[in-house]
Amino acid sequence: MPKSKIGQIADVDIKLLKIFKTVAECGSFTAAETLLGITRSSISLHMGDLEKRLGIRLCQRGRAGFALTEEGRVVLRDSETLLAAVENFRQQVNQIHDHLRGEFNIGIINNLITQPQMKVTNALSHLRGKGKDVVINISMTTQEEIERKVLDGRLHVGVVPMTSPLSGLDYRAIYSEKSSLYCGRQHPLFAHSGELPEAAIAGLDAVVPNGRITPETLALYGRMQAAARASDREGIAFLILTGKFVGFLPDHYANIWVERGEMLTINPHRLSLNTDIVVTTRKGSNKNLLLESFMAELFHPTSEQ
């Protein structure tokens, strides 16, 4: 494909970038059909137009499946930033009229839905109740990805565990989450009753989370053998259920397997930890009525505790 330089960004470019972003997130033209409300052939034409406009091959598509090129991944990242900036501009203008409308982008760590407190859910419900022109976009991903997107403006707010704070972000606690050490039904310790001695803990194969963890968590894992790693809580649960590993999970998330008799806590009085779940926003961000409304409800004195 011949190289070209893009000039002024036109409305058609914004439209094409939105289509490209949706296709990339869905992973195929077929999966994007329903969300976009247009046919695969139309999507293909739009993608071809965008590639011609940019002079870049954005993706490979064919019998081998759909995959972004290296250039496509760069364009996707930069288009997310551009589209977030356009949406932010629209919200700034709308605030002149003091009317809640536009897109609210929030990132939440995986598997927080089983948290019995409903502060985030209630705040989102309140925000949507402000008007039909409010569109809520939730991104479920890792803590590191959420914090990056809050920093560069692609997300208005994130909900993550409190580990080591980043200098460009503000953090406010909303939940306290208790986690315990678990084994699966096929694990040799499942039939064990009572507290295990320290020597038995030191020899256990554990699944350790990727990314940043608190010093307290690191100290607990330091007693065991790091035999596997997982990117999120669901990955840890998968490996615990194999019966080959132990690992820490939030009690509210593990409870479903405990009730089924598929998981067991190990030394719950000595091998547990409490972590703050926090809401994080970018320091010095521009005034945003959607974010302000969400935060006001989240920390309202009468909101559910």
TrEMBL record:
Which keywords, in A-to-Z order, does the entry hold?
A: DNA-binding, Transcription, Transcription regulation
Occurrences of domain HTH lysR-type (ranges): 12-69
Q: Which InterPro entries match?
A: LysR_HTH_N (IPR000847), LysR_subst-bd (IPR005119), WH-like_DNA-bd_sf (IPR036388), WH_DNA-bd_sf (IPR036390)
Matching SUPFAM superfamilies: Periplasmic binding protein-like II, Winged helix' DNA-binding domain
* Any one GO molecular-function label of the UniProt entry: transcription cis-regulatory region binding
Asked if the record carries the keyword DNA-binding, the reply is yes
Question: At the top level of its lineage, which domain of life is listed?
Answer: Bacteria
Family, as annotated: Belongs to the LysR transcriptional regulatory family.
> What name does the UniProt record give this protein?
LuxR family transcriptional regulator
Q: Which organism is it from?
A: Rouxiella badensis
